[in-house]
UniProtKB/TrEMBL annotation, chain A:
Purpose: Involved in endoplasmic reticulum to Golgi apparatus trafficking at a very early stage.
Subcellular location: Golgi apparatus, cis-Golgi network
CC annotations in GO: Golgi apparatus
Protein name: Trafficking protein particle complex subunit 11
UniProtKB/TrEMBL annotation, chain B:
Keyword tags: Cytoplasm, Endoplasmic reticulum, ER-Golgi transport, Golgi apparatus, Transport
Record-stated family: Belongs to the TRAPP small subunits family. Sedlin subfamily.
PANTHER family cross-referenced by the UniProt entry: TRAFFICKING PROTEIN PARTICLE COMPLEX SUBUNIT 2
GO biological process: endoplasmic reticulum to Golgi vesicle-mediated transport
Organism from which the protein derives: Orycteropus afer afer
The gene coding this protein: TRAPPC2L
GO cellular component terms attached to this protein's record: endoplasmic reticulum; Golgi apparatus; perinuclear region of cytoplasm
Annotated protein name in UniProt: Trafficking protein particle complex subunit 2-like protein
KW S-adenosyl-L-methionine (keyword) present: no
Family matches, as Gene3D superfamilies: 3.30.450.70
Cell compartments where the protein resides: Cytoplasm, Perinuclear region; Endoplasmic reticulum; Golgi apparatus
Length: 1133, 139
């Protein structure tokens, strides 16, 4: 954009830097000079001193200095600040002029060169006549200089040169053209900088010195001017603190000026400049709050200084610029590291700038609405001779006039007219939109989504005014949903109204229809008459006619639009617009509701579509159709306008296909579900309502799922909370709020009409063939076909149960691992009504615990629904939990031949194995057979015959067996010696003969076998008799490979007398046996202790009598002496 | 006194909104709506504070050239927004605070009405009168 009169001049906005000119450099043809110049200008980063350099020829003419005024007495200033002043000091009048000259100290023609140099300096001095500008000389030398003091010629010649050029020694520099050029340059420019600062310091002093000549009455403007100049020079001097101070003073002074309509623009312009400088410096000093405070003060002071009412748009433009400039400053400060907050960020200033720009537009619209016949005045009052103004903020046709009276009212009028006409050509919308988009960018950054939306609405509206309807629609459409989701209907309606206008003016059919639909809806806050107008337009559009223009539209634009619409009409063809309603709030509401959450397959599926229109007039629709996830049902759920042929029915259908505002209309749909869909969900995926003619223009309102739009979920929530009593309605009508959408239903199978009974005797016993009798009885009215039985372990239980459960239909043989846990689809055949059938199942459970068994009977039956023959598959299932228990417990123990418990057995010495079977079954058990299978290491002493064959055990009863075994010496085996297996074959006593016998195998425990050195066994009768001799023979066997020394003694007993060796010591050879014979003579009857035999092995001290007692009896039953058989005595007893 | 008073639901839709110069209604609606940005931000900052120490009054939300917007949020996250003319310097923070308290009391009365369904637009006459009284009090 080209700068307008309101933009700040460049010289105001830039950062003032000391101005230094370089002369005597030929940067075009001299490579050395070029290098020097490049070193000056390249890489001017922040660490370099702030100087702006310029290369000028040595004889350049600088602006002439006006002769010094000796007195201000008769001087009357014509304005505050000359337009050229800032530029003059930034770019024209240098603080320092540097003369570059190539001269080495050992130059042979020194004299000539020296005088040439002096001439050059003189020329520069001439053109700077009257200015305080400093002059410095830089000698470009080829040789590296010697350290100071060493080169005598150099110091001499330097002094001479200074003399010739009338320079102080501080202003003469040497620039050796060697490797370290940049380093030298930096040192040089630092020196220049010091000179420049001195220059600006003297300038400040010079301006200050004028002050005393001024008086308050005539020189008020000068006070401001001087203060401004001091501040500006301070800035050039980089003394920002003082600059700020002086700007502040200048600002205060400017508001002390007498303001009048004629000079108010000048005052505001200058105030704006100074304010800009102050704010800029405050931000630079990192005191943003000061900047904001100054700006607020500035605005408050100037807000009311409107000036001429005819040119009030100028004030608005100025205000807008103030805000924009501050926004820019703020934004720049943020880029340099300042942090802004949500409530204080540049966005607000841009927004306000936009607001004033809008005001400017409004004012310009009312003030500049001249007739077309009014022509721009000639000569142009806005043209000045020089093309620019002399002073900032003055009127071109009366520059320098200070009088408050208008000397030439005619000229004034022409001037105002010229400004007004010029304002007409300003593209306000562009300015406003730029400002708004700046603000949007800021608010986006500072988390103000709503502010952003608001500004985007304004941008959209501005685009609308600027007749850029496409952009307007794009913006409005973008923000609409924000207002919709938050439920700000008033705001949404206002946006929609603008959007509707845009779409009308562009003849955008789809948009036009969409916005109309929503403006007619319940979210719109429009009045009824407006709604009815929109509805009429909508109907027109649907009937392929042009709508009436929207109110308050630009007349020209309406004309264009009408043509566009006419084109649309002539281009008539079939045009279908599908509009998804879930993102907005249309004027027709829809709710679909299945009558039940599930339907049996043999009854028709029924659902209602409820429609309600919110528009002011009744509206007709042409078609209503429903789509499902299974598209085959779609065809059954369509309501359509009948074809033209059946005109007779017109009245009737019109009634049906017409939505009356505010009334809920219900449409009932019915269809028969497919048998394949049993167990599936039927879902309404969408409901389409077609408005208009399908052959011409029509709109398809498409509800996803069972209806509902952008606002309905919130409404439903509110309705569910409400306790309000709804007024009673006639029977066939319902309250809209009370309808709850139910968009899906399940299809479930027909209710079975059979009974399934299970007969069995729980609990099951481990491993038995457990019998389960299934009885199926049909109660159906017709024959059922294809009856199938699925039975077994219910799936979904512990996986181990599946491994250990087997089901079979054949009970006569034991089932093995190959049998499955679940028998599926056993065909059973057909069943006539009332017929029943029985099926036996056998289950074998390998482990104890409870199991769930499933019996599932399925069958087919023909059924008629809505005159449609369908084959229904029905099923019925029964589950039963069966506990499995052990049939019996088996206990095994080892005992000695004396029935004493044995922890270990002795090699070659017989012992007893005892088994106890204890029935745990609640049912009687028959032990068919039992068998002991010995391990090879065991031998039996006698026959291993079963002692419990055909024993019937009732609950809790037990059966025991006893086997005498012997184990040869095996040496030391870890963990003992295997004994063998005990196999019990059994069945339920109640089971039929065909049921197989179950063998339960019990692995017998291992036994520890130990060797003993000496085995003693006794031969003695089973009983003795008092006073009858009782012979006892002890056999002592040596089981070792050693000769055993044995000490034997027999202790006397009260109950016996005995004969034999009482105490003896003898030797037994390895593997041999020694017999000891005793004759006991019992003296008393009853259980009597035998005289105890003590054996002591000298080689085996561990062999004790304790051990010995295990093998030999310690007591014997002694019978009393019998009488002679006497028959009488018995009789007498 | 106030030029616009609004009650905003927890879900940020308006429950009640009234402004005095009715011709500029839309402007005030926008102003109240945009102020919710600041309310949201302040509430989320408050959320970290202890519940019982929470100050319901949010203070000045943001100043515009001509108006000042104040905010207040109840414990159930219902927001009250009040727009005051910038030129009205008589209204200090304390007055605003007490006005909000009055508004809150009146709102509580509305909520206590068994026939009022929370979340519906407020149509109570008593509340309306209260708001009117706060709007036309001597400036």
């Amino acid at each position: 954009m080209s700068p307008t009169q309101w933009d700040f001049p460049v010289e105001l906005c830039c950062r003032p830097m000391a101005f230094v000119t370089l002369t005597g450099l030929d940067v075009v043809y001299n490579a050395v000079h070029r290098a020097v110049w490049d070193a000056f200008c390249a890489n001017r980063r922040a660490d370099r001193v702030p100087i702006s350099f310029k290369v000028l020829p040595g004889d350049h003419e600088y602006p002439k200095c006006r002769p010094k005024r000796t007195s201000y007495e008769w001087y009357i200033p014509k304005g505050i600040l000359k337009t050229g002043w800032m530029n003059k000091h930034l770019n024209l009048v240098p603080a320092l002029v540097v003369v570059f000259y190539e001269l080495d100290w050992d130059e042979p023609q020194w004299k000539e060169k020296q005088s040439e140099c002096a001439t050059r300096v003189e020329i520069v001095r001439q053109s700077l006549q009257g200015r305080n500008t400093k002059v410095a000389v830089v000698l470009i030398q080829k040789k590296t200089p010697l350290p100071p003091g060493e080169d005598v010629i150099a110091s001499e010649r330097a002094a001479a040169l200074c003399n010739a050029c009338e320079l102080s020694g501080k202003s003469l520099f040497v620039l050796p053209h060697t490797d370290h050029l940049v380093g030298y340059i930096i040192r040089l420019e630092n020196a220049f900088y010091e000179h420049a600062q001195t220059y600006y310091y003297t300038e400040i002093r010079r301006v200050k010195s004028h002050k005393e000549f001024l008086n308050k009455t005539t020189h008020q403007l000068l006070f401001v001017r001087h203060q401004f100049k001091i501040a500006f020079f301070s800035e050039l001097k980089q003394d920002t603190q003082n600059a700020l101070k002086n700007y502040r003073t200048a600002y205060n002074l400017i508001h002390e000026l007498r303001a009048h309509e004629t000079n108010i623009l000048e005052i505001k312009t200058m105030a704006g400049f100074i304010n800009y400088k102050i704010c800029r410096l405050c931000f630079q000093h990192n005191t943003p709050l000061d900047a904001i405070a100054q700006f607020r003060k500035h605005i408050d002071l100037c807000k009311k200084k409107i000036g001429s009412a005819e040119l009030s748009f100028e004030h608005a433009a100025w205000m807008s610029k103030q805000f924009q400039a501050f926004g820019d400053l703020f934004d720049e400060a943020i880029k340099l590291g300042l942090t802004a907050i949500q409530t204080q960020n540049p966005g607000f200033y841009y927004q306000q700038a936009a607001y004033y720009a809008q005001e400017r537009k409004q004012l310009a619209k009312t003030l500049c609405n001249h007739e077309a016949s009014v022509i721009y005045p000639n000569p142009d009052p806005l043209q000045t001779q020089t093309g620019v103004l002399d002073f900032y903020g003055q009127r071109s046709w009366r520059q320098g006039v200070l009088s408050f009276d208008l000397s030439d009212p005619e000229k004034e009028k022409v001037g105002v007219l010229a400004i007004q006409l010029k304002e007409r050509s300003v593209v306000h919308s562009e300015i406003i939109i730029t400002l708004l988009s700046n603000a949007v960018a800021q608010f986006k950054k500072y988390k103000c989504p709503r502010m952003k939306s608001h500004l985007m609405v304004q941008m959209g509206e501005e685009y609308y005014y600027a007749k850029d309807y496409t952009k307007a629609l794009k913006l409005l459409d973008y923000v609409m949903c924000d207002y919709r989701t938050e439920g700000w209907w008033t705001l949404l309606t206002s946006i929609l109204t603008t959007a509707l206008k845009c779409s009308y003016l562009m003849a955008q059919l789809k948009d036009y229809i969409t916005y109309s639909l929503e403006l007619l809806g319940r979210a719109s806050t429009l009045k009824d008459e407006q709604k009815s107008r929109i509805e009429k337009n909508l109907i027109n559009v649907l009937m392929n006619e042009s709508p009436e223009p929207e109110p308050d539209c630009d007349i020209l634009a309406v004309k264009t639009a009408q043509k566009l619409w006419a084109d649309r009409v002539s281009l008539a063809g079939s045009s279908v617009f599908t509009i998804g309603v879930q993102d907005f709030v249309p004027f027709v509401q829809c709710k679909a509701k299945f009558h039940a959450p599930s339907f049996h397959v043999d009854v028709p599926v029924q659902f209602d579509i409820h429609l309600k229109a919110d528009c002011p007039h009744p509206i007709r629709f042409s078609k209503l159709c429903v789509s499902f996830n299974n598209q085959e049902y779609n065809q059954f759920c369509v309501i359509e306008e009948p074809s033209k042929a059946s005109e007779i029915l017109e009245n009737l259908t019109q009634e049906k296909m017409c939505l009356v505002p505010g009334k809920t209309r219900k449409f009932l749909f019915k269809f028969v579900a497919k048998t394949e869909d049993v167990g599936k969900k039927i879902e309404i995926t969408s409901v389409d309502l077609i408005l208009g003619n399908e052959t011409g223009r029509c709109v398809v309102l498409n509800w996803q799922g069972g209806g509902g739009d952008a606002a309905s979920s919130q409404e439903a929530l509110q309705a569910s909370r409400s306790f309000k009593r709804r007024p009673k309605l006639p029977d066939n009508e319902v309250h809209w709020d009370s309808i709850i959408i139910q968009a899906s239903t399940m299809i479930i199978s027909r209710v079975p009409n059979i009974s399934v009974h299970l007969l069995h005797e729980p609990p099951a016993l481990t491993n038995e063939m457990y019998c389960l009798v299934v009885t199926v009885e049909s109660h159906e009215k017709t024959q059922i076909r294809d009856v199938k039985l699925t039975a077994g372990l219910k799936p979904g239980q512990d996986a181990n149960l599946t491994q250990k459960t087997h089901v079979t239909l054949h009970g006569t043989e034991l089932c093995d691992e190959t049998c499955p846990a679940l028998l599926t689809d056993i065909p059973v055949g057909d069943l006539q009504p009332g017929q029943q059938l029985e099926k036996m199942l056998y289950v074998r459970c390998g482990t104890v615990g409870s199991r769930m068994f499933l019996v599932y009977v399925s069958y087919l039956i023909n059924s008629t629904v809505e005159e449609k023959e369908i084959v229904c598959k029905c099923h019925k299932d029964e589950t039963v939990t069966i506990e499995t228990v052990f049939p019996f417990d088996v206990a095994v123990k080892f005992v000695s031949t004396k029935f004493e418990h044995l922890e270990r057995v002795y090699a070659d010495i017989p012992f007893l194995l005892m088994t106890d079977i204890l029935s745990a079954s609640p049912w009687a058990l028959t032990i068919v057979h039992s068998e002991l299978q010995l391990a090879p290491s065991m031998t039996s002493v006698d026959q291993l015959e079963s002692q419990v064959d055909r024993v019937v055990l009732q609950t809790g009863e037990g059966a025991s067996e006893c086997f005498c075994l012997q184990c040869p010496s095996v040496g030391n085996v870890e963990g003992g010696v295997a004994t063998g297996r005990y196999i019990i074959s059994w069945k339920r006593t109640s089971a039929m003969g065909s049921v197989p016998v179950i063998s339960t195998v019990i692995t017998l425990p291992h036994v520890i076998v130990e060797n003993i050195p000496l085995h003693v066994n006794a031969d003695l009768p089973s009983f003795g008799r008092v006073r009858e001799s009782l012979p006892v023979k002890y056999h002592l066997q040596n089981k070792t490979t050693l000769v055993q020394d044995v000490e034997i003694s027999v202790e006397p007993s009260d109950a016996f007398m005995f004969s034999g060796l009482k105490q003896i010591r003898l030797r037994i050879l390895p593997g041999t046996e020694q017999e000891m014979l005793y004759n006991f003579y019992p003296l008393m009857a009853g259980y009597q202790q035998l005289p105890s035999l003590n054996i002591n092995l000298l080689r085996f001290p561990n062999f004790t009598n304790q051990l010995l007692r295990r093998f030999i009896p310690t007591s014997i039953f002694v019978k009393p002496q019998g009488r002679l058989v006497d028959e009488n005595s018995i009789a007498a007893a | 006194m106030a030029v616009c008073i609004a009650v905003i639901a927890k879900e940020n839709y308006p429950l009640y909104i009234r402004s005095v110069p009715t011709e500029d209604e839309l402007k005030f609606h926008y102003m109240v709506h945009t102020s919710l940005d600041v309310v949201d931000e302040k509430v989320s900052a408050l959320g970290k504070a202890l519940v019982d120490q929470r100050e319901l009054y949010l203070g000045l939300l943001y100043p515009t050239e001509d108006h000042k917007v104040y905010g207040y949020v109840t414990n159930s996250k219902v927001k009250f927004v009040m727009v005051v003319d910038s030129s009205n310097t008589a209204l200090r923070d304390n007055e605003i605070r007490s006005m909000f308290r009055k508004l809150h009391n009146s709102y509580t009365d509305v909520m206590c009405n068994p026939f009022y369904n929370p979340g519906d637009r407020i149509q109570s006459r008593a509340f309306d009168n209260m708001v009117t009284s706060m709007m036309i009090q001597v400036c």
